[in-house]
Design goal:
About 20% of the residues lie in helices and about 40% in strands. With about 375 residues, the protein is α+β, with helices and mostly antiparallel strands.
């Protein structure tokens, strides 16, 4: 195997796939990237057995072949070589070493046989739809931060993609808060409803690959056990979490009795200040509504406290509710627009955050007792 490629192209190809590689793995070959040169094309593949990323490009090929080499070392070497340089990659079969030459630099990397690399077999994909890249990224970014992390309820450690005719919803929850983003588009057509749970790592890696400034169509394909997304010369494949996701529609308050409108940036900064003296473990803050004023209060086991008032459009009985300030702050940080609506029903019921400038996005935060 021998080929020559521009340094910048190889850096881009490696950067596209290296996210699938686990830093520490029990199987050595999973720390490697597969380099497959055939038919005048270079293809790179990386996997952790849960997600697979592949990227390819047509290049100048001297000798065809396939081998695996340490992914992160190869990326570090390639990045360290001069920009705009040409890189020659050659397999020394006798010593099982990958030789990398660029400028006056020469590197040798250990290799493992391509036959040992666990590439995914062909998948029977039965559902397909196309979304604009920016729309798909928005669906992921608006919700993925609420996914659970290593929860025993394994189905919460992922993001729900719920597809029906004319609509795609993404949902995530860790049991204390919930994020929902809806995309309505009459062009979305599926034979039957598809509800899949993409694993946490897969959802975050997919979001990283997409660009919010691009309106290029992205193809999303689903099977019973996998999701595949193709974009330009990148192919992302992930296994799905096998489980039943909670009924998210039931968690969204259908009617609320109190609605206050807040300046989003002012509210965000106020929350951040009051959070400084909240309990480091529970992060609880108290929110009190009275005529024309909202008071935010926090305290901690050292008997330190913070309090700040905001002017609001509220008249009625005094209303108090407690929240984990981190959950509210994260929701506010992921919203757009100058103003947001904070909706309440009672001090024991979940609150709803929405914005007229952020269509289809709803954040639900459960209250805490303080």
């Amino acid at each position: 195997m021998k080929f020559t490629v521009a340094r910048d192209i190889l850096v881009e190809l490696l950067a596209n796939v290296v996210g699938a590689v686990e830093k520490k793995h029990t199987t050595k070959v999973l720390e490697n990237v597969l380099l497959d040169v055939s038919g005048g094309r270079l293809r790179l593949v990386a996997t952790d057995l849960e997600i697979e990323l592949s990227s390819g490009i047509e290049i100048q090929v001297d000798t065809e072949g396939a081998i695996t080499a340490p992914a992160r070392k190869l990326l570090d070497i390639t990045k360290a070589l001069p920009a705009d340089s040409s890189i020659t990659v050659e397999l020394d079969q006798e010593n099982a070493r990958l030789l990398i030459r660029g400028g006056r630099s020469r590197f040798e990397l250990a290799t493992l046989p391509a036959e040992d690399f666990p590439e995914l077999d062909e998948i029977p994909l039965n559902t397909s739809l196309t979304l604009k890249e920016s729309e798909f990224k928005r669906l992921l970014d608006k919700t993925s931060f609420c996914m659970a992390n290593q929860d025993v309820r394994y189905y919460l450690n992922g993001l729900l993609l719920d597809i029906t005719n004319g609509q795609v919803n993404t949902v995530s929850t860790d049991g204390h808060r919930l994020a929902l983003c809806e995309l309505n588009d009459e062009a979305i057509a599926v034979a039957e409803r598809a509800s899949i749970i993409v694993p946490r790592k897969g959802a975050l890696e997919l979001s990283r690959l997409l660009e919010s400034s691009s309106d290029v169509p992205v193809t999303i394909q689903l099977s019973n056990n996998h999701i595949r997304v193709e974009k330009d010369n990148i192919r992302f494949t992930s296994k799905l979490i096998d489980g039943k996701y909670p009924d998210y529609q039931a968690a969204v308050p259908s009617a609320t009795t109190i609605t206050i409108q807040l300046d989003r940036m002012v509210f965000r900064d106020t929350l951040a200040r009051v959070a400084i003296l909240s309990n480091e473990k529970f992060r609880g803050i108290r929110l009190r509504l009275s005529d024309g004023t909202m008071t935010l209060m926090s305290n901690n086991p050292e008997q330190e406290s913070a309090e700040e008032e905001m002017d609001i459009n509220y008249s009625g009985d005094v209303f108090e509710i407690g929240f984990n300030v981190s959950y509210v702050l994260e929701a506010v940080n992921h919203m757009e627009g100058e103003t947001i609506d904070f909706n309440f029903t009672s001090s024991a019921a979940s609150a709803l955050l929405t914005s007229n400038d952020d269509a289809g996005v709803r954040y639900i935060v459960m209250p805490v007792r303080l």
